[in-house]
Fold:
Amino acid sequence: MPLADLLALASGGLVGLTLGLIGGGGSILAVPLLIYVVGISSTHVAIGTSAVAVAANALAGVFLHARAKTVKWPCALVFAASGVLGAFAGARLGKAVDGQLLLSLFGLVMIVIGVSMLLRRSDGGNPDVRLDQASARDLLPSLVGYGLAVGVLSGFFGIGGGFLIVPGLIGATNMPILYAVGSSLVSVAAFGFATASSYALSGLVDWHVAALVLGGGIVGALAGTMLARRLAARKQMLVQVFAAIVILVGLYVSGRGIAALL
Structure:
């Protein structure tokens, strides 16, 4: 097997491992891995390819969380539908931006997400929250507003957006983080497919690499899930370590992008 294919499999494995271990964050590493490890030269192709693999992995996660009854379906579907509109707009805007500038901005977003992970605190939330006729007047505007905003960012940068969607769902509904994680995967899949279809129609997806990343991601996710069970008591420490890695990679990516622009 060519070295590039092995690197794509390994990159997918790392993305899947991260998703299985801490429930998110793998997609934020996918684009830098495809560019700096696999060797995809075009930032736009890396974003489109990443979106395909992330969306497919998210679908598997939706199935697992649905079986565990940790998906608030009405909230998740409204958020996802609003976000898809934003993702199409964000993807169209992202394709019009210079690749190096897009990479620089992507690195800055990684830094912001890493810092937010370090600072995140949870008050437990309301496990009984639901979107119905009685609550629609209060919840619908928040779900639509947060969904559109997160969708634009997800489409623009080609990320699944789990670390944006989870806080968005909590902010809009005050649901517990466990339900927010499960519900967020509906949006991750929807945003990913919206972004991927936009890039695919423009010929900006490497399908061979996407299949390899997806294959490695499935194996990595299984390993990460098993490891998470063993390290459950240290999960917060793992999140903090991962956040630090995201910040460091963000600094590197934005630095490379800015240097290329200059």
User: Anything to note?
Assistant: The chain has one domain: 3-261.
